[in-house]
Write a structure and sequence with these properties.
Bound molecules: copper (I) ion
Number of strands: 2
Strand content: under 5%
Order of helices and strands: EHHHHHHHE
Helix content: 25-40%
Distance between the termini: 16 Å
Strand order of the largest sheet: 1-2
CATH topology: di-copper center containing domain from catechol oxidase
Oligomer: single chain
């Protein structure tokens, strides 16, 4: 059984194995296929059209399935690997061990944002950014450079307290848990973390930065915590809503996956702590 652990508690060997599996997927081209898929959904997910991955109720189940696909790919390289999660409400500093050279490497240099240490630095030679939105072929970051702080525990709790999953107009203007977690309204949790990291993370090709997976693994964990806090609250909408994925509708690009199939993460993995 896959157990997803807090990245701050990984052993040196667990970090090494995670990084090695990521680099192997990159070497074979499988990694870049994930980046391409994500950017295609970012481009097509709009507030007034068909929307699946973002700005819509299926933001959470879509990314849950997307992470599962990536985790299975990692496990095809090394069966011992699981996705770690980054609790950004606790590990809030660019000096956190997450950003050390033995794991993800640190922030980018001031001149051009280029990450210069760790396994994903351009100088290490194993991380050419090929699926990109501009000409720059190196991983970029500007940790905290946006001038905003990462979300606090109190801000996380304020969003977890919202009892309704989602509501009309089922997009970036909605009230409710999903949209406050996604970050288009209110204190802004998920979107703000993308902006805090900066570089590719602030774009549609955000999975070019491996921290994408650790960020979304934590967003996914917050969904599971919300479900436990609100046992009477269901995924919405239930049925009959144009342009968005209802509870029982299949989700692109997978034709075998409905939100209803993804509500219980325990069928696939558990977390080290609740
Ligand atoms: Cu996304
Ligand atoms: Cu995201």
């Amino acid at each position: 059984m896959t157990v997803r652990k807090n990245q701050a508690s990984l052993s040196a060997d667990e970090k090494r194995r995670f990084v090695a599996a990521v680099l192997e997927l990159k070497r074979t081209g499988r990694y870049d296929a994930f980046v391409t898929t994500h950017n295609a959904f970012i481009m097509s997910d709009t507030d007034n059209g068909a929307r699946t991955g973002h700005r819509s109720p299926s933001f959470l189940p879509w990314h849950r399935r997307y992470l599962l696909e990536f985790e299975r790919a990692l496990q095809s390289v090394d069966a011992s690997v699981a996705l770690p999660y980054w609790d950004w409400s606790t590990d809030r500093s660019p000096r956190a061990s997450l950003w050390a050279p033995d794991f993800l490497g640190g922030t980018g240099r001031s001149r051009d944002g280029q990450v210069t240490d760790g396994p994903f630095a351009a100088s290490a030679g194993n991380w050419p950014v090929t699926v990109r939105v501009d000409g720059r072929t190196f991983l970029r970051r500007s940790l905290g450079g946006s001038g905003r702080e990462l979300p606090t525990r109190a801000e996380v709790d304020s969003v977890l307290a919202m009892a309704t999953y989602d509501m009309p107009p089922w997009n970036s203007a909605s009230d409710g848990f999903r949209n406050h977690l996604e970050g288009w309204r209110g204190v802004n949790l998920h979107n703000r973390v993308h902006v805090w990291v900066g570089g590719q993370m602030a774009t549609g090709v955000s999975p070019n930065d491996p921290v994408f997976w650790l960020h979304h693994a934590y967003v996914d964990k917050l969904w599971a915590r919300w479900q436990r806090l609100h046992p009477g609250s269901a995924y919405l909408p239930a049925a009959g809503t144009p342009d968005v994925v209802d509870l029982g509708e299949t989700m692109r690009p997978w034709n075998d996956s409905r939100p209803a199939d993804l509500l219980d993460h325990r069928a696939h993995y558990t977390f080290d702590t609740d």
